[in-house]
Structure formats: C-alpha cells, structure tokens
C-alpha cells in the first residue's frame, strides 16, 4: 500500500541545515586537501597563509605537477627521472606503475614513427617484464599491435594513442607520488559531493524537500505548490 511522503518546506529545511554545526578548521582542511591533491600550488600557498592551516611543503606539489605534466606531454623518460629524483622507492616498489610508464614510452616511440627503436625498446625493456607477469605480457602485445597497422585509426587498440591514455598514466603516477608523501591520492571533496547526492536519493523515498540540484551553486530548489 502506497504511503504519502512527508513534505518539508524550504523554511523548515533551511532551519534544519542551519542547526548543523561545522568547524571552520575542518572546512579549511577540506579545501587545502583539494588544492594540494589537484596541484594548485599558488592557490594552496595563498590559502595556507590566510587560513592558518597546517603547513605543507608546497615545493613537493611543484615537483609532483612537473612529473604529471611531463607524462601528459609525452616526455615519459623525463618523468621517470623526475620521479626517481623525488623518491626512487616509488618505482622500485610499484612494478605495475613502472611498467605502465615504460609502456607509455613505447607508445610515444610508435606515435613518432620510430618503428625500429620501438621494437628494440619493447624487446629489451618490456618483454622481460612480460615473461614474469601475464597481465604485462597482454598489455605489451596490445601495444605492439599498433605497429602492425600502417593507419593506426584502423587498429583495434588505437585508443592507446589517444591523449586520454597519457592522462590516465599521468594520474596513476600522480596518485603514487601522493601516497608516498602520505597524502590521500584522491581529494575528499568529490567524495563528499557524491555522498550528498546519494543521501538525497535515499531521502527521496521518504520525503519531499528542497533539493540541491546544482552542486556548483549549492542553492536549494523552491518546491512547487
């Protein structure tokens, strides 16, 4: 049997929200976490000074973003050097990440049309790792398949040449560096927004109330009469 939902007016809802207390320190920490994780070094520096949040070595952000930018630009060898300068243990203890960086180096050689150099690199640097790991071998075989097609647009694995693959590898490196520096690899703010959407969906089953439909403004909708 259907039951009617409780209707909560905008005034009632705003009173309930205003009754919830938030510590400014928690809000500042949340903002700082987002700026640091996403690499907004100038904004993080200014916010850190103005808000008085816990001091963070902002130079580590600059170094991390230099690595990320190098991968995004296809300069993978430079990125690997920068990672090792930051902390050699990052790649030493993460064989999957190191393989993906080497795979990206191979992709860049193929992109540049350096077929012989690409084959030599695949044989010397990636094949031995593929012999030790079946997943790596499958990834290597997919990447080398790019060399079979004169027109890469006809290749079933052409997505490997998309800029999106560079971005994926860059994000993986970024997360590994953050973890090595005892930071969360993902910012907390998106998770909280997802939780808000989930909570609204759950509450929809029990009540009619003013939603926040536009997360960018945080404005409550006006209920229709």
Describe the structure.
This is CTLH domain-containing protein. InterPro entries: CRA_dom, CTLH/CRA, CTLH_C, LisH, Ubq-SigPath_Reg. It holds the Pfam family LisH. It comes from Brassica napus. Residues 60-117 form the CTLH domain. The longest helix has 18 residues, at 115-132. Helix content is 64%, strand content 2%. The protein has helices at residues 10-18, 24-38, 41-51, 59-72, 76-86, 89-92, 95-111, 115-132, 134-144, 163-180, 188-203; strands at residues 6-7, 207-208. The model has no long low-confidence stretch (mean pLDDT 89). It has a two-stranded parallel ribbon. It starts with 5 loop residues before the first strand and ends in a 17-residue tail after the last strand. It has eleven helices and two strands. Helix 2 (24-38) packs antiparallel against helix 3, helix 7 (95-111) runs antiparallel to helix 10 (163-180) and helix 8 (115-132) runs antiparallel to helix 9. By secondary structure, it is mostly helical.
Task: Describe the structure concisely for a colleague.
The chain is mostly helical and 225 residues long. It has helices spanning 10-18, 24-38, 41-51, 59-72, 76-86, 89-92, 95-111, 115-132, 134-144, 163-180, 188-203; strands spanning 6-7, 207-208.
Distance between the termini: 25 Å
How many extended strands? 2
Beta-strand share of residues: under 5%
Computed CA radius of gyration, to the nearest angstrom: 24 Å
- H/E topology pattern: EHHHHHHHHHHHE
Characterize the biggest β-sheet: 2 strands, parallel
Give the mean pLDDT. 89
Query: What share of the residues lie within helices?
Result: 55-70%
**Structural class by sheet pairing and helices:** mainly alpha
Q: Report strand order across the widest sheet.
A: 1-2
What is the approximate shape? Answer: elongated
User: Number of DSSP helices?
Assistant: 11
Low-confidence stretches: none
Organism: Brassica napus (Rape)
Protein name: CTLH domain-containing protein
InterPro entries: CRA_dom, CTLH/CRA, CTLH_C, LisH, Ubq-SigPath_Reg
Pfam families: CTLH, LisH
